Amino acid sequence: MTGDYNTTRDVVQDINLKLLENPIPEYVTDKRNYIIRATINHCLNLKKREQRLHYKGLWLPEPFVAMSESETTGTHFENQNLLSYELAFLMEQLSATERAVFVLKEAFDFSHKEIAEAINISVDNSRQLYSRAKRKVTNLKHKPASNLRALSTARNFVSLISQGDVEGLITLFNDEISLLGDGGGKVPALGKPLMGKEKIAQFFIKLIRSAKSPVSFSFTEVLSQPAIVICLNGELTCIQILSIHKDKISKVFAVLNPDKLNLFRASLSSLP
Hints:
This protein is an alpha+beta fold. It has helices at residues 5-21, 31-46, 48-52, 75-79, 85-90, 96-106, 112-119, 123-136, 147-163, 166-172, 197-209, 262-265, and strands spanning 173-182, 194-195, 215-222, 225-232, 235-245, 248-255.
């Protein structure tokens, strides 16, 4: 719903405080859905999209280290492909209400009657918003792949860049590949998406050749997608999340905004 770790943490804390101050009424039989509805409505009230109108450059969701099995929220999210970074990005195209309807329907399997009651809209409006949201995220390219296959693709990607192998990179890329960067106005980043296999291949090779400090790479996972952790002279500077479709890279999301890399800084020592 938020795409931002600190905001998400604040929402959880606010909901917990509200529940401590005003416990769930005894007549409520489904406490889980009660809390879900309260959380969704709190996210709606934050009006995050209005705040992002003033964001400098492209906005990308904040990456965070993949959850362990003991921390996961349940297999339903993974089975429905709802824990993908690309979907989090595409959901920025949705209005706050569209996003709420989409999450309640796709992630929690609420009926349209329950959604309408939860966020105070009509049943017909819920259906329309859900249909509209589905259309807006139809370009989702990421499909769940085995961790080993995804990691192999990420390692191959880095290897080809390091070798300066333009043709190899072009072969690895999907025909519709795009590169998106988020510097938040704090560090240099692409002002708009870069398109085209050869352009992106040349861009990465020139970038690594122009590096004035030693470059190191680590590999992890962000919302079910392979991610490359890039350090210059031992300092974390970028997280690249890869979207892979039919064993080809279709999107590269490069997060450079230092404010969005804080979660990784604390976990670098645990990366392979």
